[in-house]
Structure formats: structure tokens, C-alpha cells
What we know:
Layout: E1 8-12, E2 21-27, E3 32-37, E4 42-45, E5 49-55, H1 64-74, E6 100-101, E7 107-108, H2 115-138
Antiparallel strand pairs: 1-2, 1-5, 2-3, 3-4, 6-7
Amino acid sequence: MSLYQIGRICMKLAGRDAGKKGVIIEIIDNQFVILDGATRRKKVNVKHLEPMEQIVKIKDKASHQEVKSVLEKVGIIVTDKKSKKPAQRQFPVRKSKKTVMVKEGKTKKPVVKKATVKKAEAKETSLEQNLDSKAEKIE
């Protein structure tokens, strides 16, 4: 009987989850086991584990929820990882070009009048009015 068996509570010694407790849920070979609990569910080298005295009754390849309920009964706090949902991308709204429909069903580009044309027309009318008023004064 091996020291590392299914249901053995172990503490992780190395890596990102060092110092956290978990339970062995699967034995891969003499060197590696699958550990789950307060740690991430991961394949772990037995050299990186410190076996504890406690052994819990759990089935082979148990789900995370089963592991969580068993460890909470023993007194080990297990937090669930909250998955991040990818944010929806916001696409810029494009301004559509206005088109004018003609009776034959063909489209025609809109006619754009420039402000300079209106100003030129206004200047012409004001010049004509000034010339008319000056002509009246002379007569």
C-alpha cells in the first residue's frame, strides 16, 4: 500500500499553490497524481506533496463539487474559481451615406452644396443692391 492513495489529504510544497491543501483523486503512476481542493485541479509530482494523516472517503476521479463537500466536512475551506466572461466588443457605428432614389430604381449620389456657394450668392445680391442704390442717388 502506497503512501499516496486516493482520498489522502496532502499539502502542496512547490509552485503557485504552495501551502494549500488538496485531496488525491487519481493516481497516474508512481511519480504523478491528480490533486484537487484548495489548489487547482492539476497533475502533481509526488515530490512536491506533503501527505497529511487524514484520509477521506472519496471515489476515483471525483468532481470538484464532491471534493469541495468532503473537504468542507473535514474543515478545509475551498473557494470556487469565478470564470471571467469575455466582454462583448463594441464596434464603432459607421455613418451611412445618404442616397437619393430615382424613379428608374437607380441610385444617385447626393448633391452637396458648399457654404462658399451660398456666401458668393449673398455677396452678389448685396453688390447688386448697392449698385442700384448708388445709381438712384446719382440720377
